[in-house]
Specification:
The protein is of the alpha/beta class and 316 residues long. The chain has an eight-stranded parallel beta barrel, surrounded by six helices. Helix 6 packs parallel to helix 8 and helix 11 runs parallel beside helix 13. The chain starts with a helix and ends with a helix. Bound molecules: (3S,4R)-3-hydroxy-2-oxopiperidin-4-yl beta-D-xylopyranoside (XIL). It comes from Hygrophoropsis aurantiaca. This is Endo-1,4-beta-xylanase C.
Length: 316
């Protein structure tokens, strides 16, 4: 085929891309495929722009990991999604254990977002400014930010990011918002509220960590309910896992599921692109997170294309 990024672009999309992570970049066979611009037009750093990696102690910033991925992207003509500014997970302990009052935490969020986004000014297509703000029932996640600042942490972060890089598209990103339901409705209502308040918001990121045979039937309608708000949508972390061992039947269902997801994005003009959460089972986060599950990516652990690859190609 023409390559997955070329196919996405031919369909009018901005990119098809992959997450990657710094330790993998010593694997020359892995990098050779990642570098193919025909396959991937976009990279997301899987870990190296997160808070624990970028501000391990207050006011001390380390960008070496993120810089390496931005440099790799630039060298191979790819755009970058920044991931992420504010998330309850992978926080350094100085944030979680700090017991900060509202004024102090406001300043901490502002400094983190503006320094991080400002460091990469002009080099990032879109930022996941807020990651995973909701519980599955659509209520707000009880984390250090919400518990101290209420919902205002969202606008504080978005405004700091906009000022730091006016050209970057600012996203809120979450999982279990693939189909319609309480959590997607909460996202719709948040975007509407931000727009009513004049807070910058440009996109909704749908992570799409899915299970073989369980792609929500409302995926396309759900993408449409987000784009109807006037924001863009991206599928930001796509993988489709199965209970191991993989079988021919599971791999065939997975191919069909990948095609369904890509076709849903393809059908909605405001869906700008799709990122897979690494392209190979060799470096997938799934087996270490979901016990007994894996084989979630379109290339296997030997960097050989699986049926899922053809499903993605067919979806564009
Ligand atoms: C994952 C990384 O891939 C892992 O390497 C890390 O150990 C944990 O985080 N949702 C997100 C991503 O927004 O940041 C997560 O990435 C996967 C779930």
């Amino acid at each position: 085929t023409a390559g997955l990024n070329n196919l996405a672009k031919a369909a009018g999309k901005v990119y098809f891309g992959s997450a990657t992570d710094n330790p993998e970049l010593t694997d020359t066979a892995y990098v050779a495929i990642l570098n193919e611009t025909s396959e991937f037009g976009q990279l997301t750093p899987g870990n190296s722009m997160k808070w624990d990696a970028t501000e391990p102690s207050r006011g001390t910033f380390t960008f070496a990991g993120g810089d390496a991925i931005v440099a790799l992207a630039k060298g191979t003509g790819k755009i970058v999604r920044g991931h992420n500014c504010v998330w309850y997970n992978q926080l350094p302990s100085w944030v979680t254990a700090g017991n900060f009052d509202a004024a102090d935490l406001t300043s901490i969020v502002q400094t983190h977002c503006s320094t991080l986004v400002g460091h990469y000014k002009g080099q990032i297509y879109s930022w996941d400014v807020i990651n995973e703000p909701f519980n599955d029932d659509g209520t707000w996640r009880s984390d250090v930010f919400y518990n101290t600042l209420g919902t205002s942490y969202v606008s504080i972060a978005l405004q700091a990011a906009r000022t730091a890089d006016p050209a970057a598209k600012l996203y809120i990103n979450d999982y279990n918002i693939e189909g319609t339901g309480a959590k997607s409705t909460a996202m719709v209502n948040l975007v509407k509220q931000l727009q009513a308040d004049g807070v910058p918001i440009d996109g909704v990121g749908i992570q799409a960590h899915l299970i073989v045979g369980e792609v929500p039937s409302t995926l396309q309608a759900n993408i449409e309910q987000f784009t109807a708000l006037g924001v863009e949508v991206a599928i930001t972390e796509l993988d489709i896992r199965m209970t191991l061992p993989s079988t021919a039947a599971l791999l065939a269902q997975q191919k069909s599921d990948y095609q369904t997801v890509i076709a849903a994005c393809n059908a909605v003009s405001g869906c700008v692109g799709v990122t897979i959460w690494d392209y190979t089972d060799k470096y997938s986060w799934v087996p270490s997170t979901f016990s007994g599950q894996g084989a979630a990516c379109p290339w296997d652990e030997n960097l050989v294309k699986k049926p899922a690859y053809d499903g993605i190609a067919a979806g564009w």
